[in-house]
Sequence to fold (1209 residues):
Amino acid sequence: MVAAATAGVGVRVSTLAVIVAAALAAPAVPARAQGATHLVIITGVSGEPRIAEAWQGQALALWTAATTRFGIPAAQVTVLAEDSTKDRVHVAGRSTRATIERVLGALAAKLTADDRLVVVLFAHGSSLGDGVKVNLPGPDMSADDFKKLLAPATAPMVAFIHTGSASADFAPALMGPRRIVITATKTAREQNETLFPGYFVQALTTDVADTDKDGRTSLLEAFAYATHEVERVFSQGNRLPTEHPQLADGSDGGRARSFYLTQAGGGSVAANPVAATLLRERAEVQARVDALRAKKTDMSEDAYQRALEPLMIELAEKSRALRALGAGGKP
Amino acid sequence: MTRLLARAVTVAWLPSALLAQGAGRAATPMVPAAKIAAAANTPAGAYARGAYDDAVKFADAALAADSNATDAANVLVRALADQGRFDDALARGARFRAQPAVALAIAGVLEGLGQLGEADAALATAERGPDSLRATVERARLQRERGATDSATLRLRRVASASIASARTATDLGAIAAANRMLGRDDPSRLRDALRLYDQAIARDPARHDLRAELATMLLEKFNFPDARSALDAALAINPREPRVLLATVRLDNAEGQRPRGDPLGRLLALDPAHPAGRALAARRLLDAERYADAEAEARRGLVRDSTAPAPWVAIAASRYLAGDSANYRAALERAHRRLARSAQAEVEIAELAARVRLYRNAVLSGRAGLARDPRDARALAIVGVNELRLGHVDSSRAALTRAFALDPFDPWVKNTLDLLDTFAGYATVRTPHFALVMEQGDAEVLALYAEPLAEEAYATLSARYGWTPPAPVRMEFFRSHADFSVRAVGLAGLGALGVAFGNVVALDAPPARARGEFNWEAVLWHEFAHVITLGMTDNRVPRWVSEGLSVYEERRARPAWGGGITPTLVAAYKVGRLRPPSVLNDGFVHPRYDEEVVLSYALSAFVFEMLEERKGIAGLRALLAGYRDGGSTPQLMLRTFALAPAELDSTFDRWFRAKFAREFQAVELRTTVNGRGDTAVEASGSLRSALAEAARAQRDQQWDAAIAAANRAIALFPAFAEQGSGYHYLVAAYTARKDNAAARQALGKIATLNEAAVDENVVLGGLLAQAGDTLGALGAWSRAAALQPFDAPLQAQLADLARAARNRPAEIRARRAVVALNPADRAGAHYQLARAYASAGDTTLARREVLRALDLAPSFEQAQELLLSLQPTRKAP
Fold:
């Protein structure tokens, strides 16, 4: 099921249905101990005030969530905008090719294996026969330009999210080990303005996308939510969709499922022996739940629920006990 | 039986798959004006432009100069025949009878007089002349009519294989085209050749209107209406009296369901009052209007010249069949069969007519009878297939249509319907006590939440009211694609209707089939179910205006906003006499004189039945329907049931209607204007229009006091008018601008109760009421909006939260179920909320099922865990 992707070879790009099914079935790729998370937000040439305003708002919302909700230090969040004069508080510079090369080049060179780099593009893409490019003030940048720029970043985990039109070709160009690439379209020919960025930012800045109710929103959940909403809008309007978001992470969503923007914090639960026992017992129950789930397709729903209910009661009781100890009920 | 979208009833047929493949097909050539002008004073020139008397005169002159002028003789004979002067034509042409160059024209005269043996002999003579190919084709046609299909086919093949390069004239090319067209019955690929050859023939002689008529008829038979129209219009532009072109134009108008432009049938019959096919078509119009005796009388006028002509006999047979006179039907059919040996043509035409007056079972029976005579008749198979589907017999329909498609792959009705049947694999059937609700699988869970209770309510209400119970299950099909619905209804896309009832089978647009705010599918469901009752009670013999009128009336009785009610357009049209009176209101449906007449006739007919019920109660309406079932006519039944002769019915209704809406009649006028080209246009005027115009002006200028005053004036003049642009809408805009939410709520509330499709108005109203703390009012508004747009996930979620706040558990559960079925991004959350709703309603079994579904998706979902624990028998709620 999982296709190990290496840069430029055998990239497997998955749609929402594949991703969700696979990610629920497959265990999450364990996250490594985290160092610093760096977020680079880039808005390209908008073409009209309405879009400029929307992207500016989305970039600002993401900056705010990063520095508050996710606890990323402001110094590690860089916003490069089409017009850097409008918001000098949050915008570090103009989103020209030179600035992007300077910012990403520096990060790619310095980040370590424990660090994470997240790049979010709000920009139109275009495909004029000379490869797919992102429209920037001044010279545009191609997927290959970004590939070269991020090539030194082999150690850190890199998530690259291109929310704009004609973004599909960024996945094969940028994929590699320890990479997650999300694009708003599945082909370079999908060149209409995209709905994806609005929903993606909403997913990361509110709780709407926390579908597993663990109190955090993974990159997979954010992608799934945005994709779902894009599909809903087109379906409800009885319109043919003009964008098809894609996710590639080399593990059918497994890597994205365990990727959170939230800075990891240390826990002291294990120091309490009662809590440690409860945690261990809860993990055992969860393992039994996972085993039962593996047999779900062979069972009627009634039979499945009859088997599931006692396990879920047990799980609920352990979580309640953990909360009573002040250890929190979330895994 | 259909329910129409109030503002548009258009039929824009798709071109056929075959003959319109020519995105690039050139239009048939126009006749160069100079050529006609140059030939104006010749027999042929006068004939070509339809100056038949001149043509006769010029031909006589030419024959006086040269008694052997065969060209002139041909024109003479044809010009007389085209005017219906067949005896004259025969007498004047008698001396040319042995001449091969004139024999073809004479053969046509003899055939028109029913002297088929002599016609064949004349054709044999013609086969030795310059038009030998056409003569052979005509002989084959007559042979085929007699049932000698093998020898006919041999002749046609001989012509079809003739060298096109050696074809000397347009007549030759046209003959080869005609041979291919006739052979196309068994080998559809020949139709392409026929098309090409007709185009070549017409290009060679653009004045050959008869060939244009043949081409148009072929295009028409293959449903390529635009190209058929183009060919006919080109001919009529030069000769507006060409009988073959006029005949084909009438057929095209019928096929397109269009009002005839320029009365081509009247022109044809003025030219030739005994034209058999023309009279048969006139009879058909009367059959559509369910005037069977008149139709027979009309058809008989087509037998004056040739008492054996098949078309009138078919029409006579149809009129007797539809009137239930089986013995005389068989006698007439036998007369038709004398000329249509081994042919299904008569049965096919009767089946088509039966289907047009909703007798679908009879259509199947007649189609099958046709197949017994000719098992390879694709049209008969198509009719059987389409009407079996209307009866709900999906498998037998598919079988017949599949055979029809194999014989004629170019019939778009068959192709479209088979394609539609293929999609049925993706439909789910929701069974209720009295219905089989057929819906797209993805829609079924949500739509059934609304359709099931509504359908059962309609069943209980209307069955009790009319004292008649339809056999269960009633099959009700919902189409998310309007094009699919249209194919289901009429085999082609482009139908303006919203629903259709065939009897115990109903099809309708599902909510997503139309733009938001465009229609109310629940009202359509109710309307169509009322047809199930009226059709069922009468064995489908209820006239259209009665069934439609009762359906609209029942809509209005069911919900105040449904059914359209009184509108300014209706009042204006009534005031200026643009609507038929009740005694002939059926003509407003089947023979509309202008685009809106059908829609307005729906609305008016409902008021007729409101008046009739006031006079005699529901018992009167029941007796009326029973009378139709027993074969009664409208005049008989109105007299017997309501003691109203036709004139009395009209005058009584007129008084009632004017009294009931006296205020509205004062407020509305319709002004008729004639522009420079003589076109008549109508526009609304009167005090209502002035008030609304003033409100619009004041709104544009943001003069809110003036806008409110004008809007209130409009409302006082016509309180029921709540469509877009009504006084209420101007009030909402003005009060919203002034932030006077209480007044805005009041105006929105009126729209919500008067306008059946007001989705967004109900959404806004609900929001304002919720803000004002009127939870119950808000719940009502959002419930109405959600019923109109059940697939609106955010609206359902809002409604669910509001229902929870109002402790309305059934409303909450329905909305929560809709949210779950709409596959939200947060599925665990949706299941949890549904579980809570069930738990609050005391249904712990379903609550546990839903909370487990939530936890299966999100095992660490704290609130769900707590709910699960609380649902255990020995535990307490958190």
In short: Chain B has a mean pLDDT of 90.
